[in-house]
Amino acid sequence: SILFFFQGVLKFALTEGEKIVMIWLNISARVQGVYSLVANLGSLLARYVFAQIERAANTEFSKLRMDKHREQIADILANILKLVMMVALVCVTFAPNYSYMALDVLYGSKWSATQAPHA
Would the pTM count as exceeding 0.90? Predict the structure, then answer.
């Protein structure tokens, strides 16, 4: 039971740690809001795009046995890694330039006028 307690404390520290640190450092509520907006928008890519890739990979890998299909598994893994790298490269290339427009369309001028597009 003590192990569950420490796992709970670790999970709390990992999920809420950034908020605790921002409060401890006395960061203004406006900056905390901008950070929260940017962090949540950034996690959308991981939740919607990369989660689908993970599910598809899990399905394909579960169909194949490691001892019989080692080369095919390596090829699938290499292709998945290439796809993830291309998606990440597109995001890194275009996200800074179009972040103002995206925030303006999604949340209006209230958030696009803040430091969020530059964060």
Answer: no
Task: Count each helix (H run) and each strand (E run) in the chain, helices first.
Answer: 5, 0
* Gyration radius (Cα) of the chain, Å: 20
| Euclidean distance between CA atoms 76 and 60, whole angstroms | 8
pLDDT tens-digit readout, 63-90: 777 667 778 878 888 998 898 899 889 8
| Cβ-defined contacts of 47-53 (< 8 Å, 24+) | 49/87, 50/84, 50/87, 53/80, 53/83, 53/84
Distance of CA 16 to the CA centre of its chain: 16
Amino acid identity, residue 45? L
